[in-house]
Amino acid sequence: MTDPASSATQMSLLLPDTRPSRVTLSPGAIVLRGFALPDAEALHAAIRAVAAQAPLRTMHTPGGGTLSAAMTNCGTLGWVTDKAGYRYTPQDPLSHRPWPPLPALFAQVATSAAQTAGFSGFHPNACLINRYEAGSRMGLHQDKDEKDFTQPIVSVSLGLPIHFLWGGLTRSVSPFSFLLEHGDVVVWGGKARLHYHGVKPLAAGQHPLTGSCRFNLTFRFVAP
Ligand code: MD3
Ligand code: FE
């Protein structure tokens, strides 16, 4: 048993497999379970630092509705919605200053997750931060405000788990639900990029890192 290959094989039989597992929801939608766990505390600290500059706030839909998740952004462009519609802006409408820069760790995690899922050269310039509290939800929608659909979107879930809804390319396709947990990263590219999706209301709970909340980061490349 001195052959390294055979001892490596034996190791893998004896030791628990700690690699993040990969689940394909549909072609182009790849869940990397636990991918962000090693960075979870640092990611959470970076969220707090961004929110100290650009506070999490409630946004309004053009139709007069209110989004139940609180939101903020970092990067050169940030997603906003108000009476005037959905769009990306270079400045925070609350402060009229540029959004805080994308923390280096955010860019590293997003690029390496995309690479792991088969999308090389993903360099996001926008990160939307969503904070869910008990009862917060997100209705089924498509993400169509980025103009460039050749780039994937990377999402990172932190804190309380939530039931994510995954639909099809039209609203008529019934969604199925999938539990997104602390540290899960999902890469949405190719055909999956324009699927309808949403999340069910967050169940009340307590998480050791985030307390009563779930955070979701979505990394995008938005054409300027
Ligand atoms: C599939 N966020 O910010 S993350 C969003 O949990 C959004 O906060 C949800 O949908 C959340 O737009 C879902 C997973 C996700 C994010 C973006 C996608 C799935 C996606 C874009 C295209 C396809
Ligand atoms: Fe979305």
Automatic annotation (TrEMBL):
Residues bound to Fe cation: 141, 143, 197
Binding site for 2-oxoglutarate: 130-132, 214-220
Details of cofactor binding: Binds 1 Fe(2+) ion per subunit.
MF terms (GO), sorted A to Z: broad specificity oxidative DNA demethylase activity; ferrous iron binding; oxidative RNA demethylase activity
Annotated substrate binding sites: 79, 86-88, 145, 171
Cofactor(s) listed: Fe(2+)
GO BP term (any one): oxidative RNA demethylation
Domain Fe2OG dioxygenase residues, every copy: 123-223
Gene3D superfamilies (alphabetical): Alpha-ketoglutarate-dependent dioxygenase AlkB-like (2.60.120.590)
InterPro entries found in the cross-reference section: Alkb, AlkB-like, AlkB-like_sf, Oxoglu/Fe-dep_dioxygenase_dom
Domain of life where this protein originates: Bacteria
The entry's keywords: Dioxygenase, Iron, Metal-binding, Oxidoreductase
GO cellular component: cytoplasm
Xref: NCBIfam families: PRK15401.1 (NF011930)
Name of the molecule in the record: Alpha-ketoglutarate-dependent dioxygenase AlkB
Biological source species: Acetobacter cibinongensis
